[in-house]
Amino acid sequence: MFGDAQVKHHLNRRRLHVAPYPQSLRNNFSLAATEHAVRELSTWSGYQPTRLVSLHPIAAEFGVGAIYYKDEASRFGLGSFKALGGAYAVLRLLQQQIFAQRGEHVSARDLENWTSGELAECAEFGELTANITVVTATDGNHGRSVAWGAARFGCRCRIYIHAAVSERRAAAMQALGAEVVRIAGNYDESVRVAARDAKRPGWYVVSDTSYPGYTEVPSTVMAGYSVLMHEAMQQLPRDIQLTHVFVQGGVGGLAASVAAYLWEKLGAERPRLAVAEPAFADCLFQSAVHERATKVCLTEETIMAGLSCGEVSKLAWEVLHMAADDFITIPDALVAPCMRMLAHGKFFSNADAHNTEPHDDSANPGNGVEAGESAVAGLAACLAACANPSLKVALDLNRHSQVLVLGTEGATDREIYQKLVGEVT
Ligand SMILES: Cc1ncc(COP(=O)(O)O)c(C=O)c1O
After folding, report:
1. Same CATH topology for 8-81+222-421 and 86-207?
2. CA of 250 to the centre of ligand 1 (A)
3. Whose Cα sits closest to atom 9 in ligand 1?
4. Which uninterrupted H or E stretch holds 276?
5. Residue 249 CA: which ligand 1 atom is closest?
6. pLDDT at 1 over 90
7. At 117, is the pLDDT very low, low, confident or very high (cuts 50, 70, 90)?
8. I need a labelling partner for 217 at 20 to 30 A (CA). Which of 27, 49, 63, 192 fits?
């Protein structure tokens, strides 16, 4: 299965190996911004680092030293890592607006107290935020995060989804109070419609993708994502040095935040970074091949709904073109086997000895990992590379490799999950 998979690989010859983290990237990505996001998000009620799982039986079977899986299924109860980005950007936007209009800094707690009716003194800020509408396009997870942030901090929310987004994902955003507008086209068109409609007073785009003239909010979103790398670095066993990271790309925001974080933190000692995408939506791969941001036309929707993007994020590409080592595309056929492998992985263990908080495994009777369709692309690319002798050599994967993969979502659409995985015993 993995050895026969139609996997494409592009080695990024523009990658800067030994250069220090460039000054030109610091405005948009910095460890200082990560630290700020960690300080902020770790004060939110419901915050808990997600677990890091060691997939040792899989690593042994595929001939690498270790594979660590950062399991984002439990993130803030929203099911994906996106909970770190959109909601954080909503808070920052509201804080900026209040500061601009009233000259005062309010905390997340102040705004939450107002929305829950607990703090009458915050009413004047609450009235201000209640007249703000945050607008975004999504294929599910980012919109859920923005809708949750809007509900939590007291503003309105309007979300654009494309034709292929599942009804259950739309309903999850509506349940958080968002107005959901379905458009006829694909994800890239929904981004354009959201940006066009948001030109009204009091409406603000809170997008996870960046385009010319729109960078500040996406850079905040990506700073939020980097919290998961901060956690992972603390959870990894102290005696290991990561050699590889496999991360999936939609518009590239997550991959760029991971790449920038590792570059600034570890310099030339950073692990090799491979960006995995669906073959049906390979805008990052094509951008690497053409050595410039390149649009692809989505002719078929991939099963990896969160990765179904044809246009790269401007900010993300500014990092990835010089920070990513490898670009890999995988076929949809690898997704269900990876999800099943994780679901049935009875011998996995938590890698993070320091993280002793109990996790809710009630959805995983076999102690496996519940991974959604978009969560497994990085793992699938890693396993396909390990199962292909020439690719294994090209990627320098061997029994000494210490690999991190990012399991970016849980079962964010349970019906699709069950269809792909079947009953877990
Ligand atoms: C579960 C999941 N993983 C990965 C990604 C990719 O993130 P990005 O679009 O920032 O590349 C997404 C995007 O929505 C997602 O939902």
Report:
1. yes
2. 5
3. 250
4. strand 272-278
5. 11
6. no
7. confident
8. 49
β-bridge partners, 329: 8, 277
pLDDT at 363 over 90: no
Measure CA 169 to chain center: 16
Cβ burial 169-179 (10 Å sphere, 16+ → b, else e): bbebbeebebe
| Average of per-residue pLDDT values in the chain | 93
The mean per-residue pLDDT over the stretch 316-326 comes to 98
CA distance 60 to 39: 37
8-81+222-421: in CATH 3.40.190.170? no
Residue 349 has pLDDT above 90, yes or no: no
Strands 349-350 and 52-54: antiparallel
**Ligand 1 site, residue 306, Cβ cutoff 6 A:** yes
Pocket lining: 378 vs ligand 1, CB cutoff 6 Å: no
Q: Maximum CA pair distance of the chain?
A: 65
Least confident range from 29-38, 333-342, 416-425: namely 416-425
Catalytic residues: 82, 139
Round to whole Å and give the CA distance between 188 and 174.
21
Pocket mutation for ligand 1, best pick of 248, 285, 328, 329 (most atoms within 8 Å of C-beta): 248
pLDDT number for residue 352: 67
Mark 187-211 as b/e (b = at least 16 C-beta within 10 Å). Answer: bbbbbebbbeebeeeeebbbbbbbb
Q: Looking at domain 86-207, which of 3.40.50.150, 3.40.1440.10, 3.40.50.1100, 3.40.50.2030 is its CATH number?
A: 3.40.50.1100
Report CA 417 to chain centroid distance, whole Å.
Answer: 18
- Pocket probe for ligand 1: among 187, 257, 328, 374, the residue whose CB has the most ligand atoms within 8 Å is 374
Indicate the domain borders of the chain.
8-81+222-421, 86-207
Ligand 1 centroid vs 87 CA: distance in angstroms?
15
Which of the residue ranges 13-27, 33-47, 122-136 would you say has the lowest mean pLDDT? 122-136
